[in-house]
Model the fold of this input.
Amino acid sequence: MSDILIRADNVSKVFHSHKEDVEAIHDFSLTVKKGEIVCIVGASGCGKSTFLNMVAGFIQPSSGRILLEGQEITKVEPRCGMIFQNYALFPWMTVIENITFGPRLKGVQKKVRHEQAKQWIKRVGLKGFDYSYPGELSGGMQQRVALTRALANEPDVLLCDEPFGALDAMTRQAMQQELLRLMYKSNQTILFITHSIDEALILSDRVVIMSARPGRVKAVFENDLPRPRKLELQLTDRYLELKRKVWSLVEEEVVSALGIRKG
Amino acid sequence: MDSKKLGLWHSAIVGSAGFIFFVGLWEVVVRLGFIDPFFLPAPSQVMERALAMTTGKDAVLLNDIRMSGTRVLTGFLLSAVVGVPLGLIMGTSRLVRAFLNPIVSIIRPLPALSWIPLSMLWLGIDEQQKYAIVFMGCFASVLVYTIDATLKVDPLLILAARNLGAKRLHTLRFIVLPGALPNILSGLKVVLAIAWTCVISAEMVGANSGLGFRIWTAKEWSDTGQVLVGMLCISLTVLVLDIIYRVIEKVLLPWKRMS
Ligand SMILES: Nc1ncnc2c1ncn2[C@@H]1O[C@H](COP(=O)(O)OP(=O)(O)O)[C@@H](O)[C@H]1O
Ligand SMILES: [Mg+2]
Done:
Protein backbone atom coordinates (compact mmCIF):
# COMPACT_ATOMS: atom_id res chain seq x y z
CA MET A 1 0.00 0.00 0.00
CA SER A 2 1.08 3.60 0.45
CA ASP A 3 3.97 4.48 2.69
CA ILE A 4 1.83 6.82 4.78
CA LEU A 5 1.50 5.55 8.34
CA ILE A 6 -0.47 8.30 10.05
CA ARG A 7 -2.81 10.70 8.42
CA ALA A 8 -4.68 13.43 10.29
CA ASP A 9 -7.44 15.07 8.25
CA ASN A 10 -8.77 18.44 9.37
CA VAL A 11 -8.74 17.51 13.02
CA SER A 12 -10.29 19.86 15.56
CA LYS A 13 -10.76 19.38 19.27
CA VAL A 14 -12.98 21.38 21.56
CA PHE A 15 -12.89 20.82 25.31
CA HIS A 16 -16.13 21.54 27.10
CA SER A 17 -15.69 22.67 30.65
CA HIS A 18 -18.27 24.12 33.00
CA LYS A 19 -16.94 27.64 32.42
CA GLU A 20 -16.27 27.82 28.71
CA ASP A 21 -15.47 25.79 25.62
CA VAL A 22 -11.80 25.70 24.72
CA GLU A 23 -10.75 24.90 21.18
CA ALA A 24 -7.36 23.29 21.63
CA ILE A 25 -6.56 22.57 17.98
CA HIS A 26 -8.32 23.64 14.82
CA ASP A 27 -8.35 22.12 11.35
CA PHE A 28 -5.04 20.36 11.85
CA SER A 29 -3.78 18.11 9.08
CA LEU A 30 -0.59 16.11 8.97
CA THR A 31 0.81 12.99 7.41
CA VAL A 32 3.64 10.89 8.75
CA LYS A 33 5.42 8.46 6.45
CA LYS A 34 6.78 5.10 7.57
CA GLY A 35 10.24 5.43 9.02
CA GLU A 36 10.00 9.17 9.34
CA ILE A 37 10.84 11.20 12.44
CA VAL A 38 8.51 14.17 12.64
CA CYS A 39 8.89 16.81 15.33
CA ILE A 40 6.03 19.09 16.27
CA VAL A 41 7.15 22.38 17.75
CA GLY A 42 4.85 24.92 19.34
CA ALA A 43 4.34 27.25 22.22
CA SER A 44 3.08 25.88 25.50
CA GLY A 45 -0.69 25.37 25.46
CA CYS A 46 -1.03 25.31 21.67
CA GLY A 47 -2.54 21.82 21.64
CA LYS A 48 0.48 19.57 21.03
CA SER A 49 -0.39 17.08 23.74
CA THR A 50 -4.01 17.16 22.67
CA PHE A 51 -3.04 16.07 19.19
CA LEU A 52 -0.74 13.32 20.39
CA ASN A 53 -3.39 12.02 22.79
CA MET A 54 -5.76 11.75 19.84
CA VAL A 55 -3.22 9.76 17.84
CA ALA A 56 -2.84 7.41 20.81
CA GLY A 57 -6.62 7.12 20.96
CA PHE A 58 -6.82 8.47 24.52
CA ILE A 59 -9.27 11.13 23.35
CA GLN A 60 -11.35 11.51 20.21
CA PRO A 61 -11.36 14.48 17.79
CA SER A 62 -14.42 16.75 17.84
CA SER A 63 -14.28 16.77 14.07
CA GLY A 64 -12.01 15.35 11.41
CA ARG A 65 -10.30 12.02 11.82
CA ILE A 66 -6.95 10.38 12.31
CA LEU A 67 -6.01 7.27 10.35
CA LEU A 68 -3.40 4.66 11.15
CA GLU A 69 -2.60 2.75 7.98
CA GLY A 70 -5.92 3.83 6.59
CA GLN A 71 -7.95 2.77 9.64
CA GLU A 72 -9.59 5.38 11.81
CA ILE A 73 -8.30 5.47 15.39
CA THR A 74 -11.33 5.17 17.65
CA LYS A 75 -9.96 3.66 20.85
CA VAL A 76 -6.68 3.37 22.72
CA GLU A 77 -4.28 2.08 20.10
CA PRO A 78 -1.34 -0.07 21.31
CA ARG A 79 0.31 0.22 17.91
CA CYS A 80 0.95 3.87 18.81
CA GLY A 81 3.36 3.52 21.72
CA MET A 82 3.45 6.57 23.95
CA ILE A 83 6.30 7.95 26.02
CA PHE A 84 5.08 10.34 28.67
CA GLN A 85 6.89 13.35 30.01
CA ASN A 86 6.79 12.05 33.57
CA TYR A 87 7.66 8.51 32.51
CA ALA A 88 4.48 6.82 33.82
CA LEU A 89 6.48 3.78 34.89
CA PHE A 90 4.66 1.30 37.12
CA PRO A 91 6.28 1.86 40.53
CA TRP A 92 5.50 -1.66 41.79
CA MET A 93 7.19 -3.37 38.87
CA THR A 94 10.94 -3.81 38.56
CA VAL A 95 12.74 -2.42 35.52
CA ILE A 96 12.51 -5.75 33.74
CA GLU A 97 8.83 -6.19 34.63
CA ASN A 98 8.09 -2.73 33.29
CA ILE A 99 9.90 -3.47 30.04
CA THR A 100 8.27 -6.86 29.53
CA PHE A 101 4.77 -5.64 30.37
CA GLY A 102 3.63 -5.26 26.75
CA PRO A 103 5.09 -8.57 25.51
CA ARG A 104 3.68 -10.31 28.60
CA LEU A 105 0.15 -9.17 27.74
CA LYS A 106 0.70 -10.39 24.20
CA GLY A 107 1.45 -13.84 25.61
CA VAL A 108 5.17 -13.91 24.83
CA GLN A 109 6.79 -16.63 26.94
CA LYS A 110 8.57 -15.49 30.04
CA LYS A 111 11.95 -16.82 28.98
CA VAL A 112 11.74 -15.21 25.57
CA ARG A 113 10.56 -11.82 26.79
CA HIS A 114 13.17 -11.69 29.53
CA GLU A 115 15.86 -12.54 26.99
CA GLN A 116 14.70 -9.68 24.79
CA ALA A 117 14.44 -7.31 27.73
CA LYS A 118 17.99 -8.10 28.83
CA GLN A 119 19.18 -7.17 25.34
CA TRP A 120 17.38 -3.85 25.60
CA ILE A 121 18.68 -3.21 29.09
CA LYS A 122 22.21 -3.72 27.84
CA ARG A 123 21.68 -1.47 24.82
CA VAL A 124 20.40 1.43 26.87
CA GLY A 125 23.08 1.03 29.53
CA LEU A 126 20.88 -0.08 32.42
CA LYS A 127 22.76 -3.29 33.06
CA GLY A 128 22.63 -4.25 36.72
CA PHE A 129 19.37 -2.42 37.28
CA ASP A 130 17.13 -5.21 35.98
CA TYR A 131 15.54 -5.77 39.35
CA SER A 132 15.53 -2.21 40.64
CA TYR A 133 12.28 -0.38 41.14
CA PRO A 134 11.69 2.86 39.20
CA GLY A 135 11.78 4.83 42.45
CA GLU A 136 15.41 3.81 42.88
CA LEU A 137 16.49 5.28 39.52
CA SER A 138 17.43 8.80 38.44
CA GLY A 139 15.17 10.74 36.07
CA GLY A 140 17.35 10.00 33.05
CA MET A 141 17.40 6.29 33.85
CA GLN A 142 13.65 6.24 34.36
CA GLN A 143 13.14 7.86 30.98
CA ARG A 144 15.37 5.23 29.39
CA VAL A 145 13.21 2.53 30.96
CA ALA A 146 10.09 4.26 29.61
CA LEU A 147 11.64 4.44 26.16
CA THR A 148 12.64 0.81 26.29
CA ARG A 149 9.24 -0.26 27.59
CA ALA A 150 7.58 1.40 24.60
CA LEU A 151 10.08 0.01 22.07
CA ALA A 152 9.94 -3.53 23.48
CA ASN A 153 6.25 -3.52 22.63
CA GLU A 154 7.21 -2.97 18.96
CA PRO A 155 4.83 -0.11 18.16
CA ASP A 156 4.24 1.02 14.58
CA VAL A 157 4.88 4.55 15.71
CA LEU A 158 6.54 5.94 18.80
CA LEU A 159 4.71 8.93 20.22
CA CYS A 160 6.82 11.18 22.41
CA ASP A 161 5.25 14.00 24.39
CA GLU A 162 8.17 16.18 25.45
CA PRO A 163 9.76 13.08 26.94
CA PHE A 164 12.97 14.83 27.93
CA GLY A 165 11.32 18.00 29.20
CA ALA A 166 11.73 17.11 32.86
CA LEU A 167 15.43 16.32 32.54
CA ASP A 168 18.31 18.70 33.15
CA ALA A 169 20.01 20.14 30.05
CA MET A 170 22.99 17.74 30.08
CA THR A 171 20.95 14.58 30.61
CA ARG A 172 18.55 15.82 28.00
CA GLN A 173 21.25 16.08 25.31
CA ALA A 174 22.58 12.69 26.30
CA MET A 175 19.08 11.23 25.91
CA GLN A 176 18.66 12.80 22.48
CA GLN A 177 21.89 11.17 21.36
CA GLU A 178 20.75 7.92 22.95
CA LEU A 179 17.49 8.01 21.03
CA LEU A 180 19.31 8.75 17.76
CA ARG A 181 21.74 5.92 18.41
CA LEU A 182 18.94 3.45 19.15
CA MET A 183 16.90 4.55 16.16
CA TYR A 184 19.73 4.89 13.66
CA LYS A 185 18.84 2.76 10.65
CA SER A 186 16.03 1.08 12.63
CA ASN A 187 13.35 2.69 10.48
CA GLN A 188 11.19 3.33 13.54
CA THR A 189 8.53 5.95 12.85
CA ILE A 190 8.50 8.64 15.51
CA LEU A 191 6.16 11.53 16.20
CA PHE A 192 7.96 13.73 18.66
CA ILE A 193 6.63 16.78 20.47
CA THR A 194 8.92 19.38 21.87
CA HIS A 195 9.14 23.06 22.57
CA SER A 196 12.88 22.99 22.03
CA ILE A 197 13.98 24.01 18.54
CA ASP A 198 17.38 22.42 19.09
CA GLU A 199 15.77 19.13 19.99
CA ALA A 200 13.60 19.26 16.89
CA LEU A 201 16.56 20.03 14.62
CA ILE A 202 18.73 17.29 16.10
CA LEU A 203 16.08 14.57 15.91
CA SER A 204 13.76 15.20 13.01
CA ASP A 205 13.44 14.47 9.33
CA ARG A 206 10.66 17.01 9.22
CA VAL A 207 9.57 19.83 11.54
CA VAL A 208 5.97 20.94 11.96
CA ILE A 209 5.50 24.32 13.55
CA MET A 210 2.18 24.93 15.25
CA SER A 211 0.45 28.25 15.75
CA ALA A 212 -0.71 29.48 19.13
CA ARG A 213 -4.04 28.16 20.38
CA PRO A 214 -6.13 26.95 18.69
CA GLY A 215 -3.25 24.98 17.21
CA ARG A 216 -2.96 24.86 13.43
CA VAL A 217 -0.11 23.96 11.15
CA LYS A 218 1.80 27.18 10.70
CA ALA A 219 4.71 25.82 8.67
CA VAL A 220 6.33 22.54 7.73
CA PHE A 221 9.85 22.05 6.46
CA GLU A 222 12.18 19.22 5.66
CA ASN A 223 15.19 18.99 7.92
CA ASP A 224 18.03 17.91 5.63
CA LEU A 225 20.83 18.16 8.17
CA PRO A 226 23.16 15.22 7.55
CA ARG A 227 22.99 12.11 9.75
CA PRO A 228 24.36 10.84 12.01
CA ARG A 229 23.92 14.03 13.97
CA LYS A 230 26.43 14.59 16.70
CA LEU A 231 26.39 17.51 19.09
CA GLU A 232 29.00 19.42 17.04
CA LEU A 233 26.36 19.79 14.37
CA GLN A 234 24.87 22.56 16.46
CA LEU A 235 27.89 24.74 15.68
CA THR A 236 27.64 24.58 11.90
CA ASP A 237 26.37 27.45 9.75
CA ARG A 238 23.66 25.32 8.17
CA TYR A 239 22.32 24.43 11.60
CA LEU A 240 22.29 28.01 12.79
CA GLU A 241 20.58 29.13 9.62
CA LEU A 242 17.80 26.59 10.11
CA LYS A 243 17.49 27.48 13.75
CA ARG A 244 17.10 31.16 12.90
CA LYS A 245 14.43 30.28 10.37
CA VAL A 246 12.44 28.18 12.82
CA TRP A 247 12.78 30.70 15.59
CA SER A 248 11.46 33.52 13.43
CA LEU A 249 8.37 31.41 12.75
CA VAL A 250 7.92 30.32 16.35
CA GLU A 251 8.61 33.68 17.94
CA GLU A 252 5.37 35.30 16.78
CA GLU A 253 3.40 32.40 18.18
CA VAL A 254 5.15 32.42 21.50
CA VAL A 255 4.57 36.14 21.79
CA SER A 256 0.92 35.79 20.88
CA ALA A 257 0.53 32.87 23.30
CA LEU A 258 1.89 35.05 26.05
CA GLY A 259 -0.50 37.82 25.08
CA ILE A 260 2.20 40.48 24.80
CA ARG A 261 2.69 42.81 21.87
CA LYS A 262 5.95 43.35 20.08
CA GLY A 263 7.53 46.81 19.93
CA MET B 1 22.31 5.94 58.85
CA ASP B 2 24.32 5.77 62.06
CA SER B 3 22.63 8.76 63.55
CA LYS B 4 19.25 7.28 62.65
CA LYS B 5 20.12 4.04 64.43
CA LEU B 6 21.25 6.00 67.44
CA GLY B 7 17.95 7.86 67.34
CA LEU B 8 16.09 4.57 67.39
CA TRP B 9 18.06 3.27 70.36
CA HIS B 10 17.65 6.58 72.03
CA SER B 11 13.87 6.55 71.77
CA ALA B 12 13.77 2.89 72.83
CA ILE B 13 15.72 3.70 75.99
CA VAL B 14 13.68 6.80 76.77
CA GLY B 15 10.49 4.83 76.09
CA SER B 16 11.48 2.02 78.46
CA ALA B 17 12.41 4.57 81.08
CA GLY B 18 9.00 6.20 80.77
CA PHE B 19 7.27 2.83 81.01
CA ILE B 20 9.23 1.76 84.06
CA PHE B 21 8.65 5.12 85.68
CA PHE B 22 4.86 5.00 85.39
CA VAL B 23 4.57 1.35 86.37
CA GLY B 24 6.85 2.03 89.34
CA LEU B 25 4.85 5.08 90.35
CA TRP B 26 1.64 3.05 90.14
CA GLU B 27 3.17 0.28 92.29
CA VAL B 28 4.39 2.74 94.93
CA VAL B 29 1.15 4.71 95.07
CA VAL B 30 -0.89 1.54 95.67
CA ARG B 31 1.60 0.02 98.14
CA LEU B 32 1.70 3.23 100.19
CA GLY B 33 -2.09 3.02 100.46
CA PHE B 34 -3.01 6.11 98.43
CA ILE B 35 -5.21 3.91 96.24
CA ASP B 36 -7.43 1.07 97.40
CA PRO B 37 -6.31 -2.11 95.53
CA PHE B 38 -9.98 -3.00 95.21
CA PHE B 39 -10.30 -0.21 92.65
CA LEU B 40 -6.80 -0.44 91.20
CA PRO B 41 -4.48 -3.29 92.21
CA ALA B 42 -0.73 -2.70 91.94
CA PRO B 43 1.18 -3.97 88.88
CA SER B 44 2.71 -6.78 90.92
CA GLN B 45 -0.78 -7.90 91.98
CA VAL B 46 -1.97 -7.79 88.39
CA MET B 47 0.99 -9.93 87.35
CA GLU B 48 0.16 -12.40 90.12
CA ARG B 49 -3.40 -12.60 88.87
CA ALA B 50 -2.16 -13.09 85.30
CA LEU B 51 0.09 -15.91 86.45
CA ALA B 52 -2.78 -17.62 88.23
CA MET B 53 -4.90 -17.31 85.09
CA THR B 54 -2.24 -18.87 82.87
CA THR B 55 -0.92 -21.68 85.06
CA GLY B 56 -3.16 -22.96 87.88
CA LYS B 57 -6.08 -25.33 87.42
CA ASP B 58 -8.37 -22.62 86.00
CA ALA B 59 -5.89 -21.49 83.33
CA VAL B 60 -8.34 -19.76 81.04
CA LEU B 61 -6.31 -16.84 79.77
CA LEU B 62 -4.56 -18.44 76.82
CA ASN B 63 -7.78 -20.00 75.67
CA ASP B 64 -9.49 -16.60 75.91
CA ILE B 65 -6.81 -14.99 73.79
CA ARG B 66 -7.11 -17.79 71.29
CA MET B 67 -10.91 -17.49 71.13
CA SER B 68 -10.93 -13.71 70.75
CA GLY B 69 -8.07 -13.79 68.29
CA THR B 70 -9.77 -16.39 66.13
CA ARG B 71 -13.03 -14.43 66.12
CA VAL B 72 -11.28 -11.19 65.21
CA LEU B 73 -9.19 -12.71 62.45
CA THR B 74 -12.00 -14.81 60.98
CA GLY B 75 -14.46 -11.93 60.83
CA PHE B 76 -11.81 -9.52 59.65
CA LEU B 77 -10.47 -11.80 56.91
CA LEU B 78 -14.00 -12.61 55.75
CA SER B 79 -14.79 -8.93 55.42
CA ALA B 80 -11.52 -8.33 53.57
CA VAL B 81 -11.96 -11.28 51.22
CA VAL B 82 -15.42 -10.07 50.23
CA GLY B 83 -14.86 -6.34 50.60
CA VAL B 84 -11.59 -5.80 48.76
CA PRO B 85 -12.59 -7.39 45.42
CA LEU B 86 -16.03 -5.79 45.56
CA GLY B 87 -14.41 -2.45 46.42
CA LEU B 88 -12.04 -2.76 43.46
CA ILE B 89 -14.95 -3.40 41.14
CA MET B 90 -16.96 -0.55 42.64
CA GLY B 91 -13.93 1.71 42.38
CA THR B 92 -13.39 1.01 38.71
CA SER B 93 -16.97 0.83 37.51
CA ARG B 94 -19.09 3.93 37.86
CA LEU B 95 -22.20 1.88 37.17
CA VAL B 96 -21.64 -0.70 39.91
CA ARG B 97 -20.68 2.08 42.29
CA ALA B 98 -23.87 4.01 41.63
CA PHE B 99 -25.92 0.82 42.01
CA LEU B 100 -24.46 -0.24 45.38
CA ASN B 101 -23.71 3.13 46.96
CA PRO B 102 -27.10 3.60 48.67
CA ILE B 103 -26.86 0.22 50.42
CA VAL B 104 -23.30 0.88 51.58
CA SER B 105 -24.30 4.31 52.86
CA ILE B 106 -27.06 2.77 54.95
CA ILE B 107 -24.96 -0.06 56.39
CA ARG B 108 -21.82 1.93 57.04
CA PRO B 109 -22.95 4.19 59.91
CA LEU B 110 -24.37 1.26 61.91
CA PRO B 111 -22.13 0.46 64.91
CA ALA B 112 -21.30 -3.20 65.29
CA LEU B 113 -23.20 -3.21 68.60
CA SER B 114 -26.46 -2.49 66.81
CA TRP B 115 -26.11 -5.78 64.94
CA ILE B 116 -26.01 -7.81 68.15
CA PRO B 117 -29.79 -8.26 68.68
CA LEU B 118 -30.46 -9.35 65.10
CA SER B 119 -27.42 -11.60 64.94
CA MET B 120 -28.41 -13.31 68.22
CA LEU B 121 -31.91 -13.86 66.90
CA TRP B 122 -30.59 -15.38 63.71
CA LEU B 123 -27.51 -17.21 64.86
CA GLY B 124 -27.74 -17.66 68.65
CA ILE B 125 -24.53 -17.05 70.58
CA ASP B 126 -22.18 -19.53 68.96
CA GLU B 127 -19.07 -18.70 66.96
CA GLN B 128 -20.86 -17.84 63.72
CA GLN B 129 -22.66 -15.04 65.49
CA LYS B 130 -19.32 -13.53 66.57
CA TYR B 131 -17.94 -13.78 63.05
CA ALA B 132 -21.10 -12.16 61.74
CA ILE B 133 -20.83 -9.24 64.17
CA VAL B 134 -17.20 -8.62 63.20
CA PHE B 135 -18.05 -9.00 59.54
CA MET B 136 -20.92 -6.53 59.68
CA GLY B 137 -18.85 -4.10 61.70
CA CYS B 138 -15.96 -4.23 59.23
CA PHE B 139 -17.40 -4.90 55.83
CA ALA B 140 -18.65 -1.44 54.87
CA SER B 141 -15.42 0.17 56.07
CA VAL B 142 -13.36 -2.26 54.01
CA LEU B 143 -15.47 -1.33 50.99
CA VAL B 144 -15.10 2.39 51.49
CA TYR B 145 -11.35 2.22 52.11
CA THR B 146 -10.86 0.04 49.04
CA ILE B 147 -12.98 2.27 46.81
CA ASP B 148 -11.06 5.34 47.98
CA ALA B 149 -7.74 3.60 47.38
CA THR B 150 -8.85 2.55 43.91
CA LEU B 151 -9.92 6.04 42.96
CA LYS B 152 -6.55 7.40 44.05
CA VAL B 153 -4.63 5.27 41.54
CA ASP B 154 -2.90 7.57 39.04
CA PRO B 155 -5.09 7.55 35.90
CA LEU B 156 -1.98 8.16 33.80
CA LEU B 157 -0.69 4.71 34.79
CA ILE B 158 -3.95 3.14 33.65
CA LEU B 159 -3.63 4.98 30.35
CA ALA B 160 -0.01 3.86 30.01
CA ALA B 161 -1.05 0.24 30.61
CA ARG B 162 -3.82 0.41 28.04
CA ASN B 163 -1.37 1.98 25.63
CA LEU B 164 0.78 -1.11 26.06
CA GLY B 165 -2.19 -3.31 25.19
CA ALA B 166 -3.84 -3.93 28.57
CA LYS B 167 -7.49 -4.93 28.51
CA ARG B 168 -9.88 -4.17 31.34
CA LEU B 169 -9.00 -7.20 33.46
CA HIS B 170 -5.27 -6.69 32.92
CA THR B 171 -5.62 -3.12 34.13
CA LEU B 172 -7.49 -4.27 37.22
CA ARG B 173 -4.96 -6.93 38.07
CA PHE B 174 -1.67 -5.28 37.12
CA ILE B 175 -2.37 -1.60 37.76
CA VAL B 176 -5.41 -0.89 39.93
CA LEU B 177 -4.82 -3.64 42.51
CA PRO B 178 -1.10 -3.04 43.12
CA GLY B 179 -1.56 0.72 42.83
CA ALA B 180 -4.31 0.74 45.43
CA LEU B 181 -2.69 -1.85 47.70
CA PRO B 182 -0.73 0.54 49.96
CA ASN B 183 -3.87 2.51 50.79
CA ILE B 184 -5.96 -0.65 51.08
CA LEU B 185 -3.50 -2.07 53.60
CA SER B 186 -3.46 1.06 55.72
CA GLY B 187 -7.27 1.08 55.56
CA LEU B 188 -7.41 -2.57 56.65
CA LYS B 189 -5.24 -1.71 59.61
CA VAL B 190 -7.89 0.69 60.85
CA VAL B 191 -10.51 -1.96 60.17
CA LEU B 192 -8.58 -4.49 62.25
CA ALA B 193 -8.91 -2.15 65.23
CA ILE B 194 -12.65 -1.91 64.52
CA ALA B 195 -12.79 -5.71 64.47
CA TRP B 196 -11.39 -5.82 68.00
CA THR B 197 -14.03 -3.43 69.27
CA CYS B 198 -16.68 -5.60 67.65
CA VAL B 199 -15.41 -8.80 69.25
CA ILE B 200 -14.98 -7.39 72.73
CA SER B 201 -18.49 -5.90 72.63
CA ALA B 202 -19.98 -9.11 71.28
CA GLU B 203 -18.25 -11.16 73.96
CA MET B 204 -19.45 -8.90 76.73
CA VAL B 205 -23.06 -9.34 75.67
CA GLY B 206 -23.29 -13.02 74.84
CA ALA B 207 -20.38 -15.47 75.12
CA ASN B 208 -18.76 -17.86 77.54
CA SER B 209 -15.17 -17.40 76.50
CA GLY B 210 -12.91 -14.71 75.14
CA LEU B 211 -11.26 -11.61 76.60
CA GLY B 212 -14.44 -9.53 76.48
CA PHE B 213 -16.33 -12.24 78.38
CA ARG B 214 -13.49 -12.54 80.91
CA ILE B 215 -13.43 -8.82 81.63
CA TRP B 216 -17.18 -8.67 81.96
CA THR B 217 -17.49 -11.61 84.39
CA ALA B 218 -14.55 -10.29 86.41
CA LYS B 219 -16.48 -7.08 86.91
CA GLU B 220 -19.51 -9.04 88.17
CA TRP B 221 -17.20 -10.70 90.72
CA SER B 222 -15.49 -7.37 91.50
CA ASP B 223 -12.23 -9.02 90.45
CA THR B 224 -10.42 -5.83 89.39
CA GLY B 225 -7.17 -7.70 88.87
CA GLN B 226 -8.77 -9.93 86.29
CA VAL B 227 -10.32 -6.92 84.54
CA LEU B 228 -6.87 -5.40 84.21
CA VAL B 229 -5.31 -8.66 83.03
CA GLY B 230 -7.97 -8.89 80.32
CA MET B 231 -7.38 -5.32 79.22
CA LEU B 232 -3.64 -5.83 79.19
CA CYS B 233 -4.07 -8.91 77.02
CA ILE B 234 -6.09 -6.93 74.49
CA SER B 235 -3.31 -4.36 74.30
CA LEU B 236 -0.60 -6.96 73.92
CA THR B 237 -2.48 -8.95 71.29
CA VAL B 238 -3.11 -5.81 69.25
CA LEU B 239 0.57 -4.88 69.54
CA VAL B 240 1.65 -8.31 68.33
CA LEU B 241 -0.82 -8.20 65.44
CA ASP B 242 0.53 -4.76 64.55
CA ILE B 243 4.04 -6.12 64.25
CA ILE B 244 2.86 -9.04 62.12
CA TYR B 245 0.90 -6.59 60.01
CA ARG B 246 3.98 -4.49 59.38
CA VAL B 247 5.90 -7.55 58.23
CA ILE B 248 3.08 -8.47 55.84
CA GLU B 249 3.09 -4.92 54.49
CA LYS B 250 6.83 -5.11 53.84
CA VAL B 251 6.41 -8.39 52.00
CA LEU B 252 3.48 -7.20 49.89
CA LEU B 253 4.97 -3.81 49.05
CA PRO B 254 8.63 -4.47 48.24
CA TRP B 255 8.76 -1.35 46.08
CA LYS B 256 7.88 0.82 49.10
CA ARG B 257 10.87 -0.49 51.00
CA MET B 258 13.47 1.74 49.43
CA SER B 259 14.86 4.62 51.41
N1 LIG C 1 -8.99 17.81 29.32
C1 LIG C 1 -9.01 19.12 29.04
N2 LIG C 1 -10.07 19.88 29.39
C2 LIG C 1 -10.09 21.20 29.11
N3 LIG C 1 -9.12 21.86 28.48
C3 LIG C 1 -8.03 21.17 28.12
C4 LIG C 1 -7.91 19.77 28.38
N4 LIG C 1 -6.72 19.35 27.88
C5 LIG C 1 -6.13 20.43 27.36
N5 LIG C 1 -6.91 21.52 27.48
C6 LIG C 1 -6.60 22.87 27.00
O1 LIG C 1 -6.26 22.78 25.64
C7 LIG C 1 -5.16 23.61 25.36
C8 LIG C 1 -4.04 22.81 24.76
O2 LIG C 1 -3.50 21.94 25.75
P1 LIG C 1 -2.28 20.97 25.45
O3 LIG C 1 -2.62 20.12 24.29
O4 LIG C 1 -1.96 20.28 26.70
O5 LIG C 1 -1.11 21.99 25.07
P2 LIG C 1 0.45 21.74 24.89
O6 LIG C 1 0.71 20.28 25.07
O7 LIG C 1 0.78 22.22 23.53
O8 LIG C 1 1.14 22.57 25.92
C9 LIG C 1 -4.76 24.30 26.66
O9 LIG C 1 -5.32 25.58 26.67
C10 LIG C 1 -5.40 23.43 27.71
O10 LIG C 1 -5.78 24.22 28.81
MG1 LIG D 1 1.86 19.28 26.52
About this structure: Chain A has two domains: 1-79+166-263, 89-154. The longest helix of chain A spans residues 237-258. Chain A touches chain B through 25 residues (CB under 8 Å). The CA atoms of residues 140 and 171 of chain A lie 6 Å apart.
